Amino acid sequence: MKYQDEYRDPAAARKLLQAIRHVTTRPWTIMEICGGQTHTIVRYGIDELLPPEIELVHGPGCPVCVTPLELIDRALEIASQPEVIFCSFGDMLRVPGSGRDLFAVKAAGGDIRVVYSPLDCLKIAEENPHRTVVFFAVGFETTAPANAMAVWQAKRRGITNFAVLVSHVLVPPAMQAILSSPSSRVQGFLAAGHVCAVMGYADYEPLADGFGVPIVVTGFEPLDLLEGVYRCVLMLEQGRAGVENQYARVVRHEGNARAMQLLGEVFEISDRKWRGIGTIPRSGYRLAPEYAGFDAEQRFAVDRLEVAESTVCLSGRILQGLTRPHECPAFGTECTPEHPLGATMVSSEGACAAYYNYGRHRRPETAATDSH
């Protein structure tokens, strides 16, 4: 398929791999920030094709995965209310809370609907004026403009039986938290191209300068990632910090001005808790005061609900690049897509799901048995 196959061309990939090998003289650890990039890396075995000196580690690039357990439980509490129509993208339905998931609430009689756009919720709200429609607004900066537009339209159209449960997180503060951690091994980043398509990459420049690291804005196809790795390794080898834009066919330095204007009106920046990581200052969005009437946490008084994280699931370490999915003792045994302990196993962008789906969960003895 044109515009897709050209970024999966084997001959071009071999040339990029050769170029990476040519410039690599020492060990480097590079983190990709997007779960979509993680899945491409694992699906195509990119990490296994790179020189052994280059280690790719997986960062907190899945917004579903970093949604804290207590917010999942708040969603479950709201969705259980008989007067509520709870709407969500499909990848949230199997994310486990502390005791159940949204599918379990649906099975028990909750009115839970999968939508493809938050704007679909406004039509549902207009068709059901005596019920409250709640949308689970999860995502990075990428999905935030559409969610902001739904709230903006609801206010102007007088749709008062609509609310959002906000779980928006911001990428640059998470990168700063990783770099500030004494346990961090990250020396360079492949930044998420879709996030930068909305926000631009000006916010990454102080990070690169302050921590002395290279950051390469990167796309999602195999050739994108190989070029991103090449650029990052070249900067590391030359001792250069800064931001480069590999994804220039989509991303501009200034980002999408209209989207950012809308975000600035509907949301305000706040501290945000990340699942398995903890609270990162100024790392998320909440509704601005003039839109606070659409806040589902306040409307249903669930904002004080707190729960403890699982002590078995290592998703927090996985999301910080400190542990690989198959290094978790529960991976593929206690924790599977059918019986997940954490969101990283069931989200479409989760690192554990990538390792499981593409065979990285197999133990060497299992693989040997299967080959006979």
Q: Tell me how many strands there are.
A: 11
CATH architecture of the largest domain: 3-Layer(aba) Sandwich
What percent of residues are in strands? Answer: 15-25%
Question: If strands are numbered along the chain, what order do they take across the biggest sheet?
Answer: 4-3-5-6-11-10
- What value does the average pLDDT take? 92
Polypeptide structure, described:
- Helix 1 (10-23) runs parallel beside helix 12 and helix 8 crosses helix 13 (257-266).
- This protein is of the alpha/beta class and 372 residues long.
- It has helices at residues 10-23, 35-43, 46-49, 63-66, 69-79, 102-107, 119-127, 144-157, 171-180, 193-199, 204-211, 222-238, 257-266, 296-299, 315-319, 351-357, 364-370; strands spanning 28-32, 54-58, 84-88, 111-114, 132-139, 162-169, 188-192, 214-218, 242-245, 267-274, 278-287.
- The protein is globular and about 65 Å long.
- It folds into 2 domains: 5-62 and 174-245, HypD, alpha/beta domain 1 (Rossmann fold); 64-170 and 256-299, HypD, alpha/beta domain 2 (Rossmann fold, 3-Layer(aba) Sandwich).
- The model is unreliable at 363-372 (pLDDT under 50).
Q: Which terms summarize this structure?
A:
globular, 39% helix, Rossmann fold, disordered C terminus, 6-stranded mixed beta sheet, 5-stranded parallel beta sheet, 372 residues, single chain, 11 strands, 2 domains, alpha/beta
